[in-house]
Amino acid sequence: MIDRAQAVTCPFCRGELLAGERWWRCGGCKTTHHWECHALHGACAVFGCRKDETVTDEWSINPDDPVPIGEQIAYRVLYAIARGVYLPGDKLPTVRETAVRLKVNPNTVSKAFRDLERDGILVSRRGSGVFVREGAREAARARRQSLVLERFERAVGEALDAGLDAEEIQEVLVEALERAAHLRRDEDVVEAFVHRPWTAYRKGRRSAARKKGGA
Amino acid sequence: MSRALLLRELKRHAPWAALFAAVVGVTTAAVFLERTLLGDPQTWSPVTLETGYEANRTTLNLATLVLAWTAFVAGLLAGVLALAPDTARGGTAFLFRMPLSAGQIARTKVAALGAYLPGLVLLLTAGALLQPVETRVMLETGDLNRGDPSTLLPLGGLFATALTCGLVSTVILGRALPALLLGGILTCAAGFGLLAVPFLAFGTDPRGLFVPAVALFGASALAAAWAAFSRGSPHHPTFKPALYAGALLLPAGLLLVGGTGVAQAWTVRGIEPDLELTASPAVPSVDGRHLAVSLVATPWCGPEYRVAVVDREAGTRWIAPCANAWRPEFSPDGTRLLVRKRLEPGGYVIDVAQRTATEFPGRSRDGFGYRFHTWVESGPLFVEQRGQDLVTWQPLPGDDDDPLREERAARAREAAFPLPRPMLRLVGVTGGEALLADGEGLWSAPLPRRVQLEGAASEVLRVPAPRLRLRVSGALEWIETARVSPSGRYLLALRANDDDSYALRSVASRAHVFDLEQGRLAGAWDSELASLDTQWGAHAFDPDERRVATFNADQLTVHSVDGGAEVYRREVPVTTNDGWRLCLLTWSAAGEQLALSSLDRAGGGCQSLVHPLDRPHAVIPLGSQPVVGFVDAQRLLVANQPLGALELAPAREER
Amino acid sequence: MGVELKLSEQEDLRVSVGEDVDPPAILASGLGRRFGKRWVVRDLDLELPQGSVTALLGRNGVGKSTTIQMLLGLLTPSAGSVRVLGLDPARQRHRVFTDLAYVSERRELLEDSRVEELARIVAEVHGDRFDRDGFERLRARYELAPRAKCKTLSKGQRARLLLALALMAKPRVLVLDEPTSGLDVLVRDDFLEAIAHFAAEEGHAVLLSTHLIDDVARICDRAIVLRRGGPAISGDLEDLRRSCNRYVAHLEGVLPYDHDLELPEGVVITERDPRALTLVARGQGEHLEHQLDQRLPLRDLERHPASMKEAFACLTAPVPEARTSEGGAA
Question: Out of B324, B376, B436, C73, which could bridge B443 as a Cys pair, Cβ 3.0 to 4.6 Å?
């Protein structure tokens, strides 16, 4: 993790990489790009380079997840918009690009984009592509926050189920916040959690199930 | 057709084509060397060794063998390699996943097989060039001439059969080497089915049958191969194509064998109008009344031989009721005629008066298998010298299909007795006695007659040696060949002056005529007579057995039997650079005319002259008609003509 | 496909989704194949709509490869009929293969040929449709030496070569039979990318037979599940997954491992502990839960949505007749 970037352009979204933004340096082509862009594409999209195994493993779609792949894609887009990777009026990668990068069915991507369009996040202009709708960032942020809070509530509920009491939960939360603040300058500590909400959800559910089963 | 695909096929075939050239080239070279360095293989070819006599009846032709081998190897390699390596390694599967129809793939593969053609042509030419290396005339040589369709058709059929068997085995096994093995086995089985089965089942001549059979079989085999290729699965080795192929080939084979048999029987039944005289001298009976001649017709199914008897007095002629028989010989009393079957064991005794034939079994694959025979009351008695044993055999009538064959054979067993003196040599048989010669003279030994004893049929019965009787004394150990006169009274023997003559063949030698009745040497004269056996027809007793005509070294001579005086001599230049010619020497019934026909070795050109003996300078030229025999003074029988008689032209004086 | 391909800037989200009136790319009805007396495939109705990526799933030996070979005309069906792009593959195999590319598990090539020769042959056979430049680019990207002989290529290289040849012949239907079995993850990625790229074109259809459920979940939108002894199940992938549920049954007391359970039909055990069972069942509702309650000493029964893997473990299970004969399959 590098915390300061020079003025370079992300080869994915062609936007400038700003100081304080999270970014990746691809091990293959040595280019630097947004973390979110990378996450969206699943791998380095630079010509002649299509791999960075670390990134791929970490950020690719997880087909084994109970969360449908379409929703996983929709979350990616949503979070990228929420983080400001794509600003209102920006053009998104095409369905085909996205499908090829994520190695998923184009119909699934198309369906995810259409869902987001229906939710008022994206707008498709026939013949030119899919764009971020005006005011989408707020909507995305709100949607994301609500999702995060929903997961968070569920996690808290499960923690209580697991026998932790409120104080312990608070302690854990405070510790986690401190640790996160230590690790990154960015204040957005929940980010790491919500970037993979499904994973967190599953982990929580598993631990809950284990406790239940063991009882 | 895709050019790149064709190129790829050619590249794939290249090493195999080289292998083919190597295999067949080495074979051809070996045969060529063997022919040129080791001499004439006909004398020690397996067929000759087994039958033990009549070397010039061998039909095994090594040039044909080379050609057949070439066609076999080429067909098999092509058939297997067109598919097998590709199938085994997935290439065929790959091709079948491209927008190519089975026909396109097959066309490309067939076109690539054309790579074999130049080599094939080269080797066929080489095989054909082996022909002139042959040094001997063979009456029954397979007529393998260059470009002859009767040769190319079976070769093509063999190629097609091998190709098909290769293809089918490929689709069954999918791997090259096992497929080559299976393909070879299949081809041999097909060849066996084509040649041996009809031969055994219908007694057909394999050479005659080969042409249409292989052509038909080859065609249906190709159809089966196509079915195997297009309908079978080229992706996985499977037996299914074999079923397709079998479904096509089995009816084709049955139709072929059955149809051929029926057609052949039909053809043979109606053969008589097509029969023509063969170029072998007519055999007169001792009383001069009858002439026995050999006839042949060559329908599609192979030559058919018949024997006809011409009654000189009545002017009638009739064909003996025995199939595929030849080489007639009259009994001394002229009432019976012995003929041999051709390419089958056994023969017939024909009653001349009744015109009926009695069948006799034989002990060889061809005729009776004995060198000498004599006549006893019940039929022929065969005699042969085997080492120091003299073996006799008197068959009982009945054919080979007789259910009592075993029993009959047991009742007519071979009897053998040891020759009481060393160095004795059987030179002839007459009147129930064997004539034996050695350094002391000419001996006769009475032969044991029919032996009826218990025991296995194959066992040779040992009998005590009979007492020898010295007929004529004299140093006769160098008798090279001998012939008994038709009546059995005289023995014409050729005695070489020294043992070199055997190798040199035509050095000075001496001819003797022994009077067997009186036990004396009737006459002798110096002669350049070569082996009487090999120059068939180059000597002839006149009808009264008072004179002997011989023809050798371009000299036609007639000697008196009694005293050996030369009564006629004339030079007839027929010798050419390419060796000796086949000569037919026949007397007219009254003995006043002598006909001499000489055929060149290929059986094509012929020169015939009739010599009236009373006019030493006269000659009647007959052009290119080989004279077989005289019916009377004015009419004669001519070979290659239907059984009839020609008017003799008036003699022409010649200087 | 890779970035080196000119990606269309045109975008329309309604492309190739759902409402297709086009005839299906592959349509088979009543398809059956018998080897001797044994029916390997029987009464199979199958449809591969245009614009879909369809997975052909099933356990080993259930007849997936046989089905594919019949669909392509490489094997003659014993019963039923097939139409590929309106053609009968058994009769017009070579015309079918102009618009259809097939990569098989065995990865056959012309072994003696070099890569460039092979490309030349394929290009010549396909004519102008074959994209030679595209093949060269793809060949370079897949690191295939043009002079390399096919027999020297590794399994992964063979698969990539076949993939490149298949794609550059510009087919409309891509049939992949276990294309990546036994290959590393990079080759798998190449195939997934290629399928995603291929499927994005209008009118294209992909039939993918594989055992890798992750790949199926990722790349396919429809699935055909062949089952031993019963009719095939086909439908939308997500629907199929939703049709299955995972039940965690907490038991009263201890259930020995060797205790023979009599489970309702179509229920598959995925995990078994003495006090808990994880079951996957197709369908849902009171009836099933009631049945489970009757047969098991249930203390508690949780229901969760099934993952793709669990769903297919359940869907591919042999149907009851076969199951009883096999003595319970899980």
Answer: B436
